[in-house]
Structure formats: structure tokens, C-alpha cells
Amino acid sequence: MRIYQPASIARLSEILLRALRLTIGIDPNRVVFCGNEEKQFLHSLLFAAETGDRFPNSFFKAIAKTDETREDTRFRVLSSWVRRLRERRRNTRILHSRSTLVHYHACFRGGPDVVSNLTEQFVVFPPPQLGLRKQFAENLVDSGASADTAEQLSLYFPRSHLEAYNLLARAPLLNVRPRRVVSSIYGLMDDPLLSRLLVRSGAELTYVQHGGSYGLIPPTEYEIEKTGCDRFLHWGLGDINVYPTAWKRQARNGRGARCLPFVCSSDLTAERFEHTKAVLASLRGTSSVELTFVLHPRGEATETLSRTMGVQVGVGEVSPERFPLMVFDSIHHTTVFEAIVRGVPFLVCETDDIAPPHARGQEFVALLRKAGVLISLDRVRAEVVRSLQNLDLAWRQKRESGFQQAEALVLGNPSLEEYVSTLEASRNAG
């Protein structure tokens, strides 16, 4: 679990801003960042330095856009140009007709009124400039950063706020003045033109939960996000809640499926994997399904364990046709919410890091325990065997024992679209 370090990140944020202004000549009174986006970037950088984690991962590489551009075929270039033109027209229509912009990072999907990545449609970044980044590194050190931190920042700092900063200032659409923007902190990082639009317009910013753990861990774990926006929306386990619109509810039909996935967390160690494997080993002889350990793509032991028999990397989409039942090694997986929305039966292993700060999260955890869904690892084998003997009956009993109430805490909330409509109506009435 990543630990938020407010003092070190706040200090490094000030150093970063000072060095950036020196490097590209930004007016001292100009607002550069929005929604604590730079603090989230620095948080990941510090975490990687302290734990030896790999940084940047593929997501941050995409944000920094410092990798080489591949050569595309003429057909790919043409189809990309047509698709970009179509998206530009659609986004332009939304931007000029809506007072509230719902960004695709708020709901993980597209839609007729969902704004896609504006930067990809309207901006072409210049290549990295080594001389500029060398000067940036020197200014970072002069401003108080360590040599190691300065080197990392000069390598991975986003081009959007260095080489392309002045280019973005002249980008189209910055004359648009939305009243509200709904996204996530990673949406702003992934779409710097949206961030610049927020800075220029002063629009109200709402962040939406974009993964697991929210509402199940102390709020200090995601304080950067909560303090960077005007409003934070949870998927049912916080003070303001919306339906997890990333997924669609659908009927389950997992009969005959042979795969039983045991989904592992990113912090899974080789030692814990071997212990879990030993506890569940007898499932292979007592169950009609094949137990498969699903490793997190960026897990600390994934590279070592990926060559092990009965292991796959990445869970992909939770498909009711694929899985009769899922087992999670922790309640903090995003896929737990997906399984609830899609109606996929699942079990969750108890861990000692469950600390819901809000009453709804506390109720959710208590109901999962009461229903026998949140159980100790030692009970998983027996519960899997019992459930698979008659899955429909077993799951109906769990729903009647408390799971249906737990499910309602997630599913019984307005959709993001409904929430935005209500918000707009109340503001207009006021």
C-alpha cells in the first residue's frame, strides 16, 4: 500500500515549480498545475525510489511521452487521421454545448456526451529536447532537489509541462469556459489539455474513484486526490457515491466453465505465493475446475512467478461466461467492484489492512463477513468446494445472509450521468 508523505511531496512540488519556471520562463504568478496532478506524479516517483519499484510504469511513460514514436504504415496514418478528425468534431460539439464536461477517465468508457482525450485530438507534442532537460535538471538541483531526484525528473517529467508548455498555451479550445469538469486525477495527467483548460477556466473539479480500496482504507492513502478536487465521488463506500458506470450489469452464465481464478495483489511475494499455493493445492483433486493464479501485471514477484505452471498474468475482463466463481486475495482489487456489477460470484480473503473510514465501508465489510464472502485463506478451499457443488444454491444463501445488502451499497446509487444532471439542476435553481 502506498504511503502518502505530505511534507516531502509538498516540498518537492515547490522545488519542481521553481525549477520549471526558471527553465521555460513561466510568470511567477501563473498557475501551472491543477488538481494536485504534479503531487500524484511525485508521489509515484518517491514511492519507486523508496521501494525499488519500477518507474515509470507503462502508464507514466505514456504520460511523459518521452518514448520514441514508431513508424506507421500509410494506411494506419490515414485511418488514425480520420478517427482523430471525427473525435475532434465530437469533442468540439460537447465542449461548446455543455456546462459540465464528463471526461472519459471519470467512467472508463466513451459515450455521446463523454469527452475523450483532448490532447490526442488537438495537440502534437515536440520531441524531447535533451539540452532543455539538462538545464531542467540543473535548475532542480539549484532549487534544492537531490541529484538522483533531479535525474529522474529530467528523464520522466511530462513533455506537456516542459517542451510543450508554451505550445499548449496556444492550443484551441482554451477559450471554452465549462462550469464543472468530472474526471480522475489520472485523467488530468493523461490529458494535459484538459488540465490547462481547468486552469484557464477555473471550473469546479470533481474526481471519481477509479480503482479499488477507496472507502476501505484510511483517507490519507488517497489524500492527494481528495484535497486536489472540489468533490470526490466513491463507488458506494464513501460520503458521496455514484454507481460504478465502467461496467454493465448482466446475467451470469458460468455453467460449464473450467477456470477458477485466484486473483493476486501487486504486493504478492514469492513466499506468500508458495504458502497460498500449498493451502489451496488440494483443490486440484477435489474440484471440477482448474485453479489458476492470476498475477498482477506489475506485481513485485510477477516476473519471477510468471513461468510457474498454473499461473497467468492479468485478469482481463471479468466475463460471466468464463468464470463460475472468482477468488481474490484481498478486498482492495478493482475487480471486486466489477464482479459485483457484473453479478459474478466471488470470495475474498481476509487481510489485516482493511480499515474503512466511513460507515458505509464498515457496513459493507461487516455484511461480506456475515455472508461468508469475506473469509480467511484457510477457509477458502472448503468454501470453494461447497459452492461449486451447487453454485446457484450457495450464492443464493450468501445473498440472503447479507451479500444482497452489501451489493446494494454499491449498486443502489445514481449513475454518474444522473448525479451530474441533479447537480446541474440544483445549481441552476440556486
Q: What percent of residues are in strands?
A: 5-15%
Average pLDDT, to the nearest integer? 84
The chain-level structural class is alpha/beta
Element-by-element helix/strand order: HHHHEEHHHHEHHEHEEHHEHEEHEHEHHH
Low-confidence stretches: 57-78
What is the strand arrangement across the widest sheet?
A: 8-7-6-9-10-11
Number of helices: 19
The shape is globular
What does this structure look like?
The protein has two domains: 228 residues, no CATH class; 153 residues, Rossmann fold (3-Layer(aba) Sandwich). It is 48% helix and 10% strand. It contains 19 helices and eleven strands. Helix 1 crosses helix 6, helix 6 packs antiparallel against helix 7 and helix 16 packs antiparallel against helix 18. The longest helix has 24 residues. The two termini are 42 Å apart. About 5% of the residues have low confidence.
Layout: helices, strands, pairs:
Elements: H1 6-24, H2 37-51, H3 58-64, H4 74-97, E1 100-103, E2 114-115, H5 118-122, H6 130-143, H7 147-156, H8 165-169, E3 180-183, H9 185-190, H10 192-201, E4 204-208, H11 223-226, E5 231-233, E6 259-263, H12 270-280, H13 283-286, E7 290-295, H14 302-305, E8 311-313, E9 326-328, H15 334-342, E10 346-349, H16 359-371, E11 374-375, H17 377-389, H18 391-411, H19 416-429
Parallel strand pairs: 1-2, 1-3, 3-4, 4-5, 6-7, 6-9, 7-8, 9-10, 10-11
